[in-house]
Write a structure and sequence with these properties.
The protein is α/β, with parallel strands linked by helices. The chain is built from 18 helices and 17 strands. The strands form three sheets. The chain has a six-stranded mixed β-sheet, covered by helices on one side. A six-stranded mixed β-sheet has the order 12-13-17-16-14-15, with helices on both faces. It has a five-stranded parallel β-sheet with strand order 4-3-5-6-7, sandwiched between helices. Helix 9 (179-187) links the parallel strand 6 (170-174) and strand 7 (190-193). Helix 1 (21-33) crosses helix 12, helix 6 packs across helix 10 and helix 13 runs parallel beside helix 14. The two termini are 31 Å apart.
């Protein structure tokens, strides 16, 4: 256990934050002197400055979403009973609108099938699993993007082929009055309203996070109870774990620790770090770099410039945190969800960032893939090296890593099948060990955030051997995915960020080759 964890713990509603005051005590005192705990608990939109106030005024609904969401429970119970023969819940939406639901359902032990990529593999696998017994949840704040529209189209075609009533199979989660709500009326689908202005990782305790899990049979009422139990602590100066965590996060860059490693501690809730990382990236505008580490001993989970945060479920009597962390956060899921949102907003006060700023526009999914030849072909990998980089695989990887400056990090994005090609995620620790710098990993399309100015990028694409047509559209899933990857590359080039693209001509062989090469690469 880290020495930092030897200090006092802030505890409320079964959630404990240990070790935070060793780094954040002075920051916490400053926040208290400015009455931040009470002002945030009261949803004061002026906390982040005049420029941020209009957005904050519209987007602070997450503070009370656990109360408003109770109104959904009777309708969800009635809907679940009515549709109890539809036992395969599929969630389709953009990454920002599906992440909270995916993690919440996973932590509650009732995972849903999530479709948030244009790779045809996940769509084919989902369609092969009882389409007649599938309940499709469409999640979008406004309207459907092209990927979600494609998933709706293939399901409607599958249902038409089998004969069931398509409308009965679709539930829509969206803001009242949205373009998607109007389309849902045309489909005859049930609409469950989401909290206006609250989306992305902030929406965990709204319909976006709760509906898919509830329809899969998860006890979401208990999650709301856990969040409610924490509410009484949020305006306090002491015994306020969310304030303690937010103060430590806000103090981290000033202490030279702007990388936040989120590590599962073995006590449950293992997927929570993915959601918490997205929340911190949104809230701090790149001042904090969240890295989701696989385990406490993974490369990049500790080291100079890193604040290691262990996450897990409630601890039993006499049981300490399960990892050697600087800060440990343990408690029930609902309390976690409210604590991390409050802490991220509090850190933004200290760091003077706008936590609710609109993210950059998504990449253009009409972008045509580059037609030029690869720089080199080695085994099952085509190398598309940028100007000035070596053409060979090992040289290009070394060039990418060697170019990382003292405050830069590497962003790895895989436009592949997160299930069939899951092994490729092993690149993160290998490259982190080789680079000695922070490395993040994610599945494309890449959710835009504000950390690009400090990032160099590795994009991995793969050949598609079993494509899927999009009914009524002039493109296939693979073509849409290729356009999204090209759009991301174009957007990054416009920001003058280096991008190395590696294309796997045979996915399994290419992934194995790339992992082997990365394991032997040293800067």
């Amino acid at each position: 256990m880290s020495d930092l964890l030897a200090g006092r713990a802030d505890m409320a509603a079964g959630l404990a934050v240990r070790g935070a005051d060793a780094l954040g005590a002075a920051t916490r005192a400053t926040l208290v002197s400015h009455d931040v705990p009470a002002r945030l608990a009261a949803a004061d939109p002026a906390l982040w400055g005049p420029a941020a106030e209009p957005a904050a005024l519209a987007r602070l609904g997450w503070l009370h979403a656990h109360r408003h969401s109770r109104d959904l429970l009777p309708q969800l119970a009635e809907l679940a009973a009515e549709l109890d023969d539809l036992d395969h819940v599929v969630l389709a939406g953009a990454g920002g609108d599906t992440l909270a639901a995916e993690v919440l359902a996973e932590c509650l032990g009732r995972p849903v099938t999530v479709l948030d990529t244009a790779d045809p593999g996940p769509a084919r696998a989902a369609l092969a699993d009882r389409p007649a017994r599938t309940l499709l949840v469409l999640a979008a704040r406004h309207g459907l993007d092209r990927t979600t529209d494609a998933h709706l189209r293939v399901y409607r075609q599958a249902w038409a082929d089998e004969g069931p009533d398509a409308a009965r199979h679709v539930v829509v989660v969206t803001e009242p009055g949205s373009e998607l709500a109007a389309r849902a009326d045309e489909l005859g689908a049930v609409v469950l309203p989401a909290e206006p202005g609250t989306s992305g990782p902030w929406a965990a305790l709204t319909a976006f996070g709760l509906v898919p899990a509830a329809l899969a049979g998860a006890p979401v009422a208990e999650v709301l109870d856990e969040a409610e139990a924490l509410t009484g602590a949020l305006d306090r100066d002491r015994d306020n774990p969310a304030l303690a965590l937010g103060a430590a996060l806000g103090a981290a860059p000033g202490a030279g620790r702007d990388t936040i490693a989120l590590v599962p501690d073995g006590t449950g809730l293992d997927g929570l770090g993915r959601w918490a990382g997205a929340l911190l990236a949104d809230a701090t505008g790149g001042r904090l770099l969240p890295v989701v580490a696989e385990s406490p001993d993974s490369p990049g989970a500790t080291g100079p410039g890193v604040l290691t945060v262990g996450l897990g479920g409630a601890l039993g009597a006499g049981v300490g945190p399960g990892v050697a962390a600087d800060v440990a956060v343990n408690g029930p899921l609902g309390a976690h969800l409210l604590t991390w949102a409050y802490a991220a907003a509090t850190a933004a006060v200290t760091l003077r960032t706008d936590p609710f700023a609109a993210p950059p526009d998504p990449a253009d999914d009409d972008a045509a893939p580059e037609s030029g030849p690869p720089s080199s072909v080695e085994g099952a990998i085509e190398v598309y090296a940028p100007s000035g980089a070596p053409a060979d695989l090992t040289g290009a990887l070394r060039w990418l890593l060697d170019g990382l400056g003292e405050r830069e990090h590497l962003v790895v994005t895989a436009y592949l099948d997160r299930h069939a090609d899951a092994a490729i995620a092993g690149l993160r620790p290998l490259l982190a060990r080789a680079a000695g710098r922070p490395v993040t990993f994610g599945w494309g399309p890449r959710r835009p955030h504000h950390t690009d100015p400090r990032g160099r990028h590795l994009q991995i694409t793969g050949a598609v051997t079993d494509d899927l047509e999009v009914p009524g559209r002039p493109y296939t899933f693979a073509q849409l995915q290729a356009a999204q990857a090209a759009g991301d590359r174009r957007a990054l080039a416009g920001r003058e960020r280096p991008v190395l693209r590696l294309h796997l001509t045979e996915r399994a062989a290419g992934a194995a080759q790339l992992l082997d090469t990365a394991g032997r690469t040293r800067t």
